[in-house]
Every structure is written in structure tokens, then in C-alpha cells.
Amino acid sequence: MSALKEVHRPDANEVKGRSGRILFVEDEPAISEPFSRALEREGFEAVVASTGERALVLADQLEPDLVLLDLNLPDRDGRDVCRELRRESDVPIVMLTARGTETDRIVGLEIGADDYIVKPFSAGEVISRIRAVLRRTNGSQMRPPVIRIAGLEIDEGARSVTLDERPVALTRKEFDLLLELARHPGEVVRREDLMVRVWDVNWFGSTKTLDVHIRSLRKKLGDGQSDRELIETVRGVGFRFAAQEEKGP
Hints:
- The structure is a single chain.
- The protein is α/β, with parallel strands linked by helices.
- The protein is built from 9 helices and 13 strands.
- The chain has helices spanning about 10-15, 30-40, 50-60, 80-90, 100-110, 125-140, 170-180, 190-200, 210-220; strands at about 20-25, 45-50, 65-70, 95, 115-120, 145-150, 150-155, 160-165, 165, 190, 230-235, 240, 245.
- It has a 5-stranded parallel β-sheet with strand order 2-1-3-4-5, with helices on both faces. The chain has a 5-stranded antiparallel β-sheet with strand order 9-8-7-6-13, with helices on one face. It has a 3-stranded antiparallel β-sheet with strand order 10-12-11.
- β4 (about 95), α5 (about 100-110) and β5 (about 115-120) form a beta-alpha-beta unit.
- α7 packs across α9 (about 210-220).
- The longest helix has 16 residues, at about 125-140.
């Protein structure tokens, strides 16, 4: 492999309009294909490599903004790929693995990974972790805007919510669900899409857990207790975040 080029850190103008290029190193199409689609729905450009050697070549050629690296590869140990990437580049690396012991995590971080995620995981969790790593490595220019809607303020970077300037305590899934709806104000978001984006890219089956979380969100946001109703049900299809979006600075 030729020496990896120094990874270019995009300036604010380059970042505008895209979330970043992700090199996804994964040999299982059943994982890489739907997860790549999930990344692209969130504004990322996804490039897949099915082997460690191919990953090193693409990293050299494409200069990705982040490498999402599965450790179980057909041609070599993903940790060796991580070491080689790190010797030649400061590209952020997020490891994906089924090995979740404390020792495995420590080794992964010590050889240069920026984050370490243990399977099984949901698409929503991994994408949130990717954004967090990009914010840390690129600074405030990668910080997502605050969403303000009808007295509701959602700060994705801080993962905090306030309603009429009062904090609203949400669980992790409630926050992810609220954020996904608020990103599409006035649009109907299908139940199946919410399950894939918030719970699991490989989800199938009942959406009962979605109804439970929607009811909890509505209660915490005061829907039905005043004239304000933020989450509307579109029967048989999904949900709509009713108000118009105002993005903060």
C-alpha cells in the first residue's frame, strides 16, 4: 500500500450540505447494504470495503472523513487495519465488534480507535456516535444546528430538550425518536422508517414499542394538555411533526 495521505479536514463551506464521507469496512452484505442506506438517509456518503486490503486502498484514494471498521474481516484482523491506518493518517476510526470485554475496548482505543461499539447495535446509535466523533475531531463547525419549534428546543449536540425554557427529561430512545421526527417538520414519517432509523437497521416485526414511546413523548411534551400538539398521528401510515422548523445559529 502507498503511504496514506494526510486526511483533509473540511472547512465550514465544504461541510455545508453534507455530513461527511464514511468508509464502511464490513464483509457481510446483509449488514453493509442496509446500514449504508441508513447513513445516506442521514446525509452521509457511504463507501463500502469488504476486506482490510480494499479498505486501505480506498482510504488512500478517497480520504474519508471517518472509517467505520468491523474487526472480523475475511483477509486480516481489523485491529491490524486500524494500526496501519493510524500509522499513516489521523482519520477518525470507529470500531465495530462482537468482542465487548473491557480488555478488548482498552486495546481498541489504545491502538488508535476514536470509539468502540459492541454488537448488536442500532443504526441510530452508531450514527449518533459517528456524529459525536466528527464533532470532536472537526470542532464546532461540525456541530448540528439547534432545532426550535413552537417553544420546543432540541440540541442534538448536547442531547438536551427544553420546552418553554424548562428542561424535559427524555430517555435515549425518546430523544432519538423526537429528533428524527423534528428533522422532518410537516412531513409524514412512516412507522417502518422510524423503527429502522431509531431502533435497528435490520428491524422487522411489530411496531408496538414505537407506540409506547410516542405516548410517553406526547405526555412529556404536554400534547393534548393545551392548544399545542407537536406530534400528529397519520392513521395507518406514521407520524408527523406538525410545527414548522426554525433553526438556531
